[in-house]
Amino acid sequence: MKRIAQFFVLILFAMFLFTTPAKADEDGTTVYFYNVLGWKEVYVYSWTEGSNAPELTPMEAMEKKNWYQFTFAPEMGKEIDFVIYNGEWGDTNQTRDIKIKNGKDMYYYATKELVDNGNGNVADVREFKKKNALTADYKEYKKELAAAEANKKSVKIYFRNDDGWKKVYIWAWKENGSNIFEGKFPGKKMKKYNDEWYVCTFESDMAVQCIFSNGNTKKNKQTGDSEKIMPGGTYWITLAGGDKVEANSDGLGAGFKVAINRAPQPGWPEGKQLTPEEIESSKEAAKISNMDSGRKKNGIGAWIPFIIGIVVIIGISIAVNMNHKKNNTLA
Q1: Which of 59, 77, 156, 218 gives the lowest tally of CB atoms within 10 Å of its CB?
Q2: Is residue 108 within 8 Å of 98, Cβ to Cβ?
Q3: What's the CATH number of domain 22-147, 3.30.1380, 2.60.40, 2.30.30, 3.10.150?
C-alpha cells in the first residue's frame, strides 16, 4: 500500500513539473541595463516581426545605482527586437539592435564603441557573462575598458591634397567594424598643415582603414578604402597617380587609389626641409612624372593626335603628287 502511495506521489510531482510554466513564461522577459554612459533618461524602444507600431517605454530605475530594468510581457512572445536609448537618436545616445534570447533574462551595458546599425552609427552593447551581474559592481566592464585603453596607441596621418580640395575630411574605422569618429560620413575635418598637407591624430587599439574626401555631399570627391594601418605610427598618404578604385560588393569604397608611405620624403612634414631651389626642382620633376604617368595610363591613346597628324601630312603629299602628274600629262 505504501508503494502505491509513493507511486501516486511521483506521478503528481511529474505532472506538476510538466504543467507548471517556467518563470520567464509567467512573468515575461526582463532586461537589466547598466547605465555606464550616464544617460539622464533611459528608454526601451521595441518592436516585433510584422509590427509597424514600435513601443517606447521608460526603463525603471532600480535601487542599485545606475541599474535599470524593463520586463517584456509574456504575450509579446520570445522574438522581440529592441534598442535602449536616452531619448535622442544616433551615436552614443542609443544602442544597436538587440534581440530577446529564448525568453531568458538579460544583463547589458553600453560601450563607447560605435557600430553601423544600418541607419548610422550607434553604441555597441556587451552582455554581462556572469549570472550575478547585478552584484558584479561593474567589474567586468572596468577590466575590459582598462585593457582596451592600455592597448590604445596613437595614429598620426598626413594627407597630401593632390586633387586640390578646399577641405579635407577623414573617415576611419577599426578592423572589428567600429568607427573611430562619432557622427556620420565624411567624419572629422583634418587640420591644414600647409598648402599641400593636412594632418589628423587619433587613437586605436587595433588596425584601421581610412577614406579621405572633400566633405561635399553634392559634389563628393573621395578616395577608396585605404589598406590597413597599424596603430603606434605616423603615415604619409598621397593619391596614387590618379588611379581609381572600383566600388566593393556593397557599392561603396569607390574613389582615388591612395599610396601609404611609412617614412617622409624630403620636403614632406617631419622630413628633410628643402631649399627654394630644391622645391622648384621637385615641382618640375613632379610635372614630368605626371606627364609620364599620363602617357602610360593612356597607352596608345596618347599617340593618336600624332598619328592623325602624320596621316594628314601623307594624304596631302599624295594629293599634291597626283595633281602634279595630272598637270604634266595635260601638258
Answers
A1: 218
A2: yes
A3: 2.60.40
